[in-house]
Input
Amino acid sequence: MTIFLEEKGVEAEKRDDVQTLTFYKFVLDSVPVAILTVNADLRITGFNPWAERITGYSSEEVTGKYCGKILQGGMCLSHCPLKTVIGGHVPISLVESTIRNKWGETIPVRMNTAGLFDNRGNLIGGVESFQDISRLKALERERNNLISMFAHDMKSSLTIIGGFVLRLLKKQGDHSPDKEKKYLTIASNEAARLEGLVDEFLEFSRLQAGKICLNLDAMLLDKELLEMLDAYYLKASQYGVRLEFENEEELPIIKADTIQLRRVFSNLLDNAIKFTQKGGTIRLKTGKTKNEVFVQISDEGIGISPEELSSIFDPFHRGQAVREKKGFGLGLAAVKAIVEAHGGHIRVSSELRKGSVFTVALPRENIQDISGDTISPRI
Output
C-alpha cells in the first residue's frame, strides 16, 4: 500500500512537471517579444512565434542549430551576449545590436539575455529576448536630420537679414526709398520665417519632453470655431476649395485651453486645405454625446495609405505622398499631444485619393473652480 502511494506520488509529480512546462511554453509563445532559448552548447532549444516573425525562420528550421549561425548578430563574433551571461552569471539588459533575417536583411534589435541555471547552480542554457527597433531607429535618424535642417534654415534666414541690414548701414542715403523698402520687406519676411522656425523648434522640444502646458478655463467651443472659420473661408476660397460648417445643436461649455485647441483645429484645417484639390470640399461638423463633444473635419484630399495610417501622429512622420510639401512632420504629433492632454482623443479614417476624416473628441464635464462655483465662460 505504501509503495502504491509512493508510485502514485511520483506519477503526480511527473504530471505536475508536464503541466508546468506546458504553461511556460504557452507564456513564451504568447509574449509579444521574440524569445529563443539555448542549451549549454548554445544550440537552439526554443524559438517562439515572434522570433519566427522577425527572423523569417520556423522553429523546426532552427532547433538544434548554433544560435550564432541563425541570428548572425552584430555581437556574435566579438562579444556574444549569451556566452557572457553564461560565463558570468550576470544578465545583460537592453543591449542594442543587429541580427540578419532569413533573407539577409539587417535588423536593428534591442535585446535582453540571461543564463538558465538549476537550483544547485548548474548551467542549463540561456535565454535571449529581442525586439525589432527599426522604426525607432528611423525616427531617431529623422530627428537628427531635422535638427540639422532647423539649424541650417535658421542660419540661412539670419544670413539674409544680416546681409540686407548691412547694405542699408553701409550705403545710407545711396538707396532710393523703393529699394530701401524692398530690403526691409525682405528682412521682415525672413524675420517672420525665422520666428516660425523657432516656434517649431520649441514645439519639437516640448514634444520630446512630453510636456504640454495647459491653462484651463471655461470655453465656448462653438464660438471659437466660428471665429476661426471666418478667417478660413477666405483662405479656402483662395485655394479654390469650399468650406462647409454643420452645427445642428449648441455645444456645452467645456474646460479647455483655448489657445492650444485653436492650434489643434488650425493645424487640421491647414492640412485639409493644403491637401485638397481645387474644387474639393472641406466639411466641419460638431456634435455631442453623453460624455463627449466632438469636432469632425473631413476633406476630399489625397488621403492616407493604410500602411501609414498608424504612424501619422508620430513626430517627424511625413507620408510618401506629401514629401514635396513644406514642414517637419510635427503638426499632427502636436495635435495628438494637445488633445490627449485635455483628456480627449483623436481618430482618423482615410482612403487614398478619396480624402480623410479627423475626429477630435473632448470630455464633457461640469466646469467648476476650486471653491465649487461655476466659472463663467470667456466671451
The longest strand covers residues 106-117. The two ends are 91 Å apart (CA to CA).
